[in-house]
Specification:
binds D-glutamic acid; globular; 259 residues; 2 domains; Rossmann fold; four-stranded parallel β-sheet; six-stranded parallel β-sheet; alpha/beta
Amino acid sequence: MSKQSIGIFDSGVGGTSIWKEIHALMPNENTIYLADSANAPYGPKGKDAIIDLSIKNTEYLLNKNCKLIVVACNTATTNAIDYLRANYNVSFIGIEPAIKPAALQTKTNAVGILATKGTLSSELFSKTTNLFASHIKVIEQIADGIVELIESGNLYSDEMKSLLKIYLEPMIKADIDYLVLGCTHYPYLIPTLLELLPKHVKIIDSGEAVARQTKVVLEQHGLLNTQITKTKSQFFTNGNLEVMTSLLGKNFIVDYLHF
Ligand code: DGL
């Protein structure tokens, strides 16, 4: 069973940032990545719609015999992972904004968070924020339009820069010293964010932690692939093949999926 693949899904290409962390930490693992780009963005959709799409993605990966599922999407995790865990007999690893480490480390008592509407309005996010960050100022920003620009191949556009400038302004005014990335698409923005943020602001994302947690859970279940074999990394999208290839690099083949 350890040779079966880790299944990974996101509303689109963003979760490839998580796939990269998983692949770097566990190069022996076979992986299948599903980008549901035709339905992106998930952020503005309601909880029920996000659960329905997450069910569809999960069943696709389970039909491919995946041994564990990584929900590489904050919006799907914060809205649907409880449902998935209650209804499928497989382990799920999720991702949610790293508000706790930011709240623990801030010196200015102000942290910023960029995420989707679906994540910021979720119960899970308010619970985590109340639990760990009630003593500090949390400047929340719904980053409308960012996922769409990445999905359409406009990562390094002027429009992206202008939107980010608008979103960061209230955070900079509030003197944040940590910016939490609450969406798996956003690690691709880091070069632009570093240009726009004051030098002392640190960026936190949860990608590496998700990869570590995936490894721990595989080990616990005796599912880690310890044999050195040639591994397979498969990528499927119902969106734009070139956009996904440009984020992964030319060594990886992306297949189109009618989904
Ligand atoms: N990558 C998803 C996330 O982490 C993007 C959300 C969306 O599709 O709006 O939240």
